[in-house]
Amino acid sequence: MIDSIKDIHAFRKDPPPAGPAPEIRFREEQRLLLENGMKVILIENHKLPRVNAQLFIDHGIALQGPKAGLNEITGQLLSCGTIMNSKSEWDRKVDYYGATVHTSSIGGYVSSLSKHFDAVFSLFAEAIMYPAFPVGEFENIRRQQLSNLAAQKDEAESILSNIVKIRVYPEGHPYHEVVTESSVSCIGLEDCRRWYDANFMPNRSYLILEGNISLEEVKTLVDGTFARWQKKDFAEPQFDRSIVREMTDISFSPKEGSVQSLIGVSFAVDYLPYNEDMIAANLMNSVLGGYFSSRLNRNLREDKGFTYGISSRLSQDEHMGSFFTSVNVRNEVTSEAIGEIIKEIRRLREEIIPADELQQVKNVVSGNFSRSVEDPRTIARFALARWKFGLPDDYFKNQLIRIHSVTAEEIRSMAKKYLLADNLHLFVVGNEAVLPQLSRFGKIYRYDYEGKPQN
Of 282, 289, 293, 270, which Cα lies nearest the Cα of 399? Predict the structure, then answer.
């Protein structure tokens, strides 16, 4: 019992010790497998009168060659009119129900009040299964794409993205391709039809529903829509996943008159989704640049005052993973900023992280994970991952326990495995006045805004 103000202050001074990491309880998912091969997942949630659904078509990746950007245009075109409804009529109906409907090259998303969901879902299925490919809308989308690409010629972030694709991923891999004005201009309406026919099919599709709807209602819904979709033969293209190790080099793209440099550090890694390293590797990246108090941000923002902020990401991918970080700094500190980024990468590989820093990162990552499961879309994504990757039922339930079991030695082991300190691709988009600073990092390659070599 607390008897005095002094006792109260003493009580508040020291926080209570943390208890063991709990198991998270998720709403149970229900599954259906349609005769045409479509996989349906339902997470019932009757707290709000809404239903959300997302369609994921697992058609993998493919080379588009001189028509890079074809998939993006096709995905947008699906919601621009159907065989049953013109674009204006289809849009009018969606707006009438106050719904959200979006289509893309890998499926789409639909959300509405549950009392309107049957009608809205039918409009969504109509766009996916019976697109009209109107020539006028195709021209509008292509014209908008060309306008966006023209504007991006002077955007340092877009230039950096293009050069990263060229330098990080090997030639002949789809991630190496850059969408340009030339490639978009080569795309025709029939190309979109052919791409759609080859890549949209029920037997490679996952339909995930979440919200105020029962399994019986879902069965009725899909029986009247996607169950009619005809399955197709499909052979997913395969690409070499091997990663060529190179010495550290630097790629430069000029931006005349710029008073700051956009710096990038990136490389490809063999990092498959939900592999055994995932928890420890993600924690390792959080230490480096995954949250506000990360080492990169403390160094370049707090200690040096070079930038407003810097972060990093270690991306899992079935086809080829990657590491990436970028930051804007003043011209005169470009070289020093690159050196500090490399120093932090090396330090994480060579030194054991202090216990208090590791605990702080675990707390942040655990808190972010706990908050993320409040979003229904997160629960749907977890359900998809369990089915697609064959994960055990308790995989996400025990996530917090796994996070808190990671050791300092595992963090260093992940840094040695995934942070390629001697094989970095360094990038700078900025003023040519910084070039003399950069030669100490290795050979300099020059590129234009589309990633075309200029040496």
Answer: 282
